[in-house]
Amino acid sequence: MKPMKTLFTLAVMSVACMACSQEAVIRKNLAERIPQLQNIDEVTKSAMPGLWEIRTNGADILYTDAEGNYLIQGSLIDTKLRRNLTDERVDKLTAIAFDALPLKDSFTIVRGNGKRHLAVFEDPNCGYCKRFERDLQKVDNITIHMFLYPILSSDSTDKSKGIWCAKDKGKSWQDWMVRDVPIGAASCDTAALERNVEFGHKYKITGTPTLIFANSERVPGAIDSQQVEQHLAEAKN
Q1: In the CATH hierarchy, which fold is given to the domain comprising 2-93?
Q2: Edge-to-edge strands of the sheet including 107-111?
Q3: Can you tell me the mean pLDDT for 125-149?
Q4: What is the rounded CA–CA span in Å between residue 148 and residue 107?
Q5: Which of 77, 82, 85, 192 has the fewest Cβ atoms nearer than 10 Å?
Q6: Which residue ranges does the chain devote to CATH 3.10.450.70?
Q7: CA 154 from centroid of its chain's CA atoms
């Protein structure tokens, strides 16, 4: 049995070496031909024979052949299982564990016993966010971790600074989003807003609102209060 085991180990090592060699060829050719691909995060075999996955900028996915002669930008679909493998890969790469959220860069709004938790990334100039916030008033017994995420305009940053520097952040936020009360002038350290934008870019938060529940489920877009209740119940189970 020992010789067989040795042969098997050698075969596995040989395949691994070939893969490393192929990866080096792909990296070299793409870096020489496309300046934007000088720093590739990862090169791995895709589910499709002969096709290699190129990962850049944390979670940007491209595909190439074994020598980097061709580049494909788009989704890889498994037609048999009817699955978008590219979307699944990006979702996995950009998943945000709730306990890994930088809560120090958020403020909280607590209703009732506050036992249920929800994190939300929102822009103060987002119309969908305003609609979402007004309907969210119906949800009780919740702690909302609010991340100001000014990505729509420079004015979004100005408004976010006013809210972040307010004496009562939660009241200032809800006054503006729910009751259209103008945001008062205030000044303070607003580095948290820059960190929120950096965090969002890293995890591909491209729109507002984006919701993250306690079970780390991520929901993009405005949903109604009944849907929020449903997700909160699922996060608790």
Answers
A1: Nuclear Transport Factor 2; Chain: A, (3.10.450)
A2: 107-111, 142-148, 116-122, 210-213, 218-220
A3: 98
A4: 9
A5: 82
A6: 2-93
A7: 22
Residues recorded for the chain: 237
What is the domain class of 98-236 according to CATH?
alpha beta
Owner of token pair 């002038």: 185
CA 171 vs CA 43, 76, 161, 166, 212: distances in Å: 48, 46, 14, 9, 22
- Identify the sign of the CA torsion 22, 24, 25, 29: positive
pLDDT at residue 16 tops 80: no
Q: Is the pTM of this model over 0.85?
A: no
Residue 186: the pLDDT is: 86
Distance between CA atoms of 232 and 17, rounded to whole angstroms? 47
